Amino acid sequence: MSVLVPFAEVGFAESWWIQIIKAVVIFLVGFTLVPLALMLDRKLMGRMQMRYGPNRVGPYGALQPMADIGKLLFKQQFRPRTSVGFLFAFAPVISMICAAATFAIIPFGGTVDIFGTEVGLYGIDVSIGILFAFAFSGLSVYGLMLGGWASGSKYSFLGAMRSAAQLISYELAMGFSILGIVITAGTLSLTGIVEAQSGMWYIVPQFVGFCIYIVSAFAETGRPPFDLSEAEAELVGGYSTEYGGGRFATYYAAEYFHMVIASAIAVTMFLGGWQLPFVDPPTWVDPIVVLVKTVLVICVFVWARTTFPRPRYDQLMALGWKILLPLATANVIVTAIIVVVTD
Amino acid sequence: MAEVIFFIAAIGALAGAIGVVTLHNPFYSVLALVGHLISLAALFLLLRAEFLAAAQVIVYAGAVTVLYVFVVSYVGDGTVPLGRGGARLRVIAGLFIGMLFVELCIAMLGSGLKAIDGDGAPYVPGFGSPADIGEALLTKFQLPFQIASLLLLTATVGAVMLARRRDGGRALDDRPYVPGQYITPRSLFSGTLAEAVGRMRAPPEEPRQPAPVPAAAPAPRDGANPASGDDAGEEA
């Protein structure tokens, strides 16, 4: 029997139980990567700063994220008297939903034959592809804004406004940086884009796009050096100033989830997805290749965090609007001309 | 399944639309608008117009309405409810609503409601896909597409004219923006441990020339000053 998913033009209809299993597996993989990214962030940053990083909980400190999350979850929930109750509780959920939903389109491999059933190693392969990710990254702005506004605190509010402005500005550059790839590959579907990279990874012809994407991804995920909303000296803690306990843990995990997703999208769009150069490994290696590449890109995030100082806010805006956006536009135009000429 | 999703989305869209006009706190009004737009996107998905749904969420819910939220949360803090408007406004609003109602009636009844008994348009594979929409926009609807772009361009130029700073943007930061101002000249080993322990000193910077006195009095500022390594100067 075939169940038509209302919003997915799947290449073949997958039965409902496969879809449910896939949803659970993807959810689990996503939420396994988040503590891993958290751990990697702290450990690697420690090493880069010539210290050990967390090393008390578990072997090599590997259970530190569990301890952190456990501590946060068992803390008392409290909120300021001026806050707006339901929005205050709901805003972190928006952030988390948007992060988790985007993970559904990351392809970990092509279609494989598992016990005689064709299964695609991705959540859904939508025809709108990368636009799906942008739709949810557009909505995730609300998570920050509502959180900051509903806190009823000026620090939170200003931090939220800063983050939202930053996100909106860099979303444009991010979208344009990927447009070159869409033009070259001729498809929006992420699996299609990965398959189009079998000859050459898009990081080579689209190197400018890759640089723009990575810089925008730093800003979009609010990671250092673009963590202006959390500039302690000016804004205390940004939009999450008033949050504590499990709600703060949700925001915190969502931030790392966004980082994982930005890395995974970079892998899919620029670094060949599940493909390896010169070798053609068996199908079961594909998800491992994607995961390893994703972790490597996360290392770049950590590396940038330890390397660059935080820019001023006007510098951040100038970088986004006056350098990255014109550069990305020029990249799109040049790519389009080349594609038309060589076609 | 499709029916359930349709009714959820339709109820969401109607509730959102009603909420926009009835809620007194402008912030919640805008949030209701967001809910309305997202419900509309879900309805588009049911119609298999995936690209339209994505565009709806990205452009309207993700960009336009975020700016509304910006304005509303800065300006109206919810303590001041929206005024009920004067008598004249109410008359004008009533007139507009009446006109809109008549127009909709003409549009719907004018078709004779023939479609009620029909089965609706059949689903053609590829309909509503990005490629399909792109082709339609660039061939059949080329002229309306260009005119709509022109409209947006006009609005953009107008917004820039209204929002520009009258002093040419120098009020905030007296240095103008120079491309590449973040790239500061540094020595090869700057920032390394070798430099920190004093093994690789950065070459001492030559003393700065005093800025030449501008000849004309109203010249606003001297040369571009492309961020000449301030940090290196402090180390020396």
Oligomer type: heterodimer
Question: What is the count of helical runs of chain A?
Answer: 11
Shape of chain B: extended
Low-confidence region ranges of chain B: 217-236
Order of helices and strands of chain B: HHHHHHHH
What characteristic shape of chain A results from the CA principal axes? globular
Strand order of the largest sheet of chain A: 1-2
Give the count of structural domains of chain A. Answer: 1
CATH superfamily of one domain in chain B: NADH-ubiquinone/plastoquinone oxidoreductase chain 6, subunit NuoJ
Strand % of chain B is under 5%
The amount of helix of chain B comes to: 55-70%
Structural class of chain B: mainly alpha
Overall helicity of chain A: 55-70%
CATH architecture name of one domain in chain B: Up-down Bundle
Beta-strand fraction estimate of chain A: under 5%
Specify Rg of chain A, calculated over alpha carbons.
20 Å
Count the strands of chain B? 0
Largest sheet of chain A: 2 strands, antiparallel
For the sheet with most strands of chain B, the description reads: none
State the order of secondary-structure elements of chain A, H for helix, E for strand. Answer: HHHEEHHHHHHHH
Question: How would the blueprint of this fold be written?
Answer:
The complex is a heterodimer of chains A (343) and B (236).
Chain A: H1 16-48, H2 64-73, H3 85-102, E1 111-114, E2 117-120, H4 130-150, H5 154-185, H6 190-196, H7 207-220, H8 232-235, H9 245-270, H10 286-307, H11 313-342
Helix pairs in contact in A: 1-9, 1-10, 2-9, 3-4, 3-9, 4-5, 5-7, 5-11, 7-9, 7-11, 9-10
Chain B: H1 2-22, H2 26-46, H3 50-75, H4 87-110, H5 130-138, H6 142-163, H7 193-196, H8 230-235
